[in-house]
Amino acid sequence: MLRQIKGLHHVTSLARDARENNAFFTNVLGLRRVKKTVNFDAPDVYHLYYGDEVGSPGTVMTYFPFPNAARGHRGTGEVGRTSFSIPTGSAQAWQARLATFDVEGLSTQTLFGQKRVLFDGPDGDAFALVEHDDDRTPWTGGGVSVDMAVRGFLGADMRLNDAGASAELLQFMGYEKLDTQGDVTRFAIPDGNDANIIDIQTVPHAPMARQGAGSVHHIAFAVENRARQLEVREALLDTGYNVTPVIDRDYFYAIYFRAPGGVLFEVATNEPGFDRDEDTAHLGRSLKLPSQHEHLRTKLERKLMPLGD
């Protein structure tokens, strides 16, 4: 069993409209945009990162907003819902706040003894704000007060036809099975970061998801550095997984592989971080381009939609 993985690093999803996406995460949820860059493989598409003050691992929601992308269809083989941690006692205030913004899909739920505010993002992406004792320092943007501000991720919920093989993978990655409630089984990394929960919902006869705007593209798990990442990669290869070589993503190093249930997993390093090319006070303000796309700057600055900030 691996011990290097500490919980989630980031979650990356697809969107349709960059400006709408930016406004939702910064103005409605009160997160900080910590990086404005582009998709490595499609540089005419933004890659936007939202999180706490410095984009700490375990806090960062990222998006590829493909203009006018068709909406995805929910189903199995995907991350069905991404969960953020909020202070205990703040669920009612969040429900009221989201209602003022006419956020869709708004409801409440208690799962594993925790109050959850369920809601949809602009593209139908499913989220939960979960009351949880969490001492991480939040970013307080969009008029969100510190006593209710998002602390970062709690975890992610995967919807699968059959949980067996994915449960075995999570346990190999260092997660422990905690409990089952209905069709949901909870796994957690002991002594991990605060974004250390994965819930698997088993829905045997549901159709497979179809990816599009509002779909999670992949979830990334955090390791301390490149040495720990190489240890994880070797162990996964030895177990039979088809793992990519290490890829330099400027702000972290990444490897990717497909979990048995269909979800794309990434293992990302905590280093070097989002302040490698911007000081903390100005994170996310300027368009940052990978070196291989710097020659396209003039063209991209004309084509990419202004975010409105």
Could you give a quick summary of the protein structure above?
Helices cover 17% and strands 34% of the residues. It is built from five helices and 16 strands.
Task: Please explain how this structure is put together.
It comes from Yoonia rhodophyticola. This is VOC family protein. Pfam families: Glyoxalase. Residues 7-132, 152-270 form the VOC domain. With 309 residues, the chain is α+β, with helices and mostly antiparallel strands. It has a single domain (8-303), classed as 2,3-Dihydroxybiphenyl 1,2-Dioxygenase, domain 1. 17% of the residues lie in helices and 34% in strands. It contains five helices and 16 strands. An eight-stranded mixed beta sheet has the order 2-3-4-1-13-16-15-14. A hairpin with a 5-residue loop joins strand 15 (252-258) and strand 16 (264-272). It is globular. It starts with 7 loop residues before the first strand and ends in a 6-residue tail after the last helix. The relative contact order is 0.22. The mean pLDDT is 97.
Furnish the topology, listing elements before pairings.
Elements: E1 8-15, H1 18-28, E2 32-38, E3 46-51, E4 60-65, E5 78-86, H2 91-100, E6 107-111, E7 114-120, E8 126-131, E9 152-160, H3 164-172, E10 176-181, E11 184-188, E12 197-202, E13 216-223, H4 226-239, E14 247-248, E15 252-258, E16 264-272, H5 297-303
Protein name: VOC family protein
InterPro entries: Extradiol_RC_dioxygenase, Glyas_Bleomycin-R_OHBP_Dase, Glyas_Fos-R_dOase_dom, VOC_core
Domain VOC: 7-132, 152-270
